[in-house]
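Incident review: delayed structure delivery

Summary: a single-chain prediction request sat in the queue longer than the usual turnaround. Root cause was a stuck worker, restarted by the on-call engineer. No data loss occurred. The affected request and its eventual output are reproduced below so the record is complete for anyone auditing the incident later.

Affected input:
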Amino acid sequence: MKRLFFTGFFICSLFTAGFAQDSEYKSAIGGRLSSGYYDLISGSYKTFISDQGALEFNLGFRGDSYESYDWVTATFSAAYQHHFDIKPVPGLKWFIGGGLAIYNSFSGDPNYRGFGMGIFPTGGIDYKFGNIPLNLTADCRPTISLVDPYKDSNYHGHESFDGSNFGISVRYTLR
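Output delivered after worker restart:
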């Protein structure tokens, strides 16, 4: 998943030279692909509430299986992000912040179903293309589970911590 993060960063860097005009946006809507154990794909909405502060909301799911059981996890997450310009490149910013994920797993196996909740710090890069209404974000969200629905902690390999939650978002920008 680290490759996914660096690929996103590379793509953002590659396109910065040709799209340098009008690189600010107010809101954006699209999708997020991640490596976290509670969501794989999600819808994503991001809106700036100040010049540097933004809220990001995601609604997603992840399917998985274990032995003869299949299950689906549905997730809602919300995060605050504080952005900082990367001066030489118009439209490129880095951000830090934190958020909350609420999820529920549905399965025929009682060991793999139930309500879960976690908190996460977040950090990453955000790029708004200048001449087209497109925003790309690459981020990291190491999640600490406060409530874990999985009775068998061997499922995700961490007792209550998932440090492998990397994601890439592609969004259509709205003014």
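Verification: The beta strands are 27-34, 41-48, 53-66, 69-85, 92-107, 114-128, 134-140, 143-147, 161-162, 166-174.
Action items: add queue-age alerting; document worker restart procedure.
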